[in-house]
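Attaching the record inline, Q. Sequence:
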Amino acid sequence: MRGTSQYRKYTIATPTAYLYAFIACIASWIVSYVYSIGYPVYGEVAAPPLWNAICQLLPNKAFTYVIGMALMIGGAFLLHRANYALMLIREKTLLPFLFFILLISTNPDFFPLKSTSLGVFCLIFAVYQLFTSYHNPESMDKAYNAALLIGVGSLLWIHILWFLPLFWYGMYRFRSLNVRTFMASFLGVSTVYWFVLGWCVWQKDFSPFIIPFTSLFKIHFLQIKGTFIDWIGLIYVALITIIASINILAHEYEDNLRTRQFLSFVIVLAIWSFVLFFIYEQSSEEYLEMACVPSSILMAHFFTVVHNKYIFWLFHFTVLLFIALLFIRLWNFL
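Structure, as predicted:
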């Protein structure tokens, strides 16, 4: 009885915790809207033409912020549903949803809309397709769908293509990689760019091919700049992600083999995202937003399965820290 009482006392996933964290995220968006953080949204010369066209079509600030918030909540919901369907966390929890919107809402660099706001959908759907191909060497359709989703995402953000080799690694780990599934994934990406090529031939303009792929292979290592406040949030997320990963590896036999392999891939996905963040300075913000997907799952797993007073207070400290850092950065910005 005492163990049950302690479990309930230090349970983080309560309506009160969800409510105050969610209200804090909404307040962050409201303050950012008032001070036009990140608005207007501009395209870039090296960005895919489709993303630049979308930037030009955004009618006003209110619409842009509403779309950005809707995409954030939609991505968080997809992450929650994927976690529930794949049973990555043993207990039912909304923490993946909560941590995703918290990480997005407390970083001014993500306001109000990025090319990866839609790319997150493609990544989550692609990961789901990959996971459902577990131990199925005949899953050519899932390999094709995953690569197709990555290809669609690359029309808005070309650097998402660097996640494709990671998916091949995942197929190998899940014993679904063979010549047929590899070719299916290759055809998935090729399908997207076959239509792009057709458009280029019709328009007699090959810039949709040349411009994005030129930037894809330009490596600029991230230079440490900005104030220490700008780096505290990133360092803290990386630290909690590492702690959560170590906890998973240290207690791996508490989960079944399938879940262990899924979580191992999520860990590798987080590492891959952070590595690319440092390699591509011109897309560092986008890779950081992609890293929020695996980090949200790993952080949610840690705060769900570990129950004691230290973890309980660490969770509330984490939420308050991110909120405080956001308003300090906004204050410095203004």
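The CA atoms of residues 100 and 293 lie 7 Å apart. The mean pLDDT is 86.

More tomorrow.
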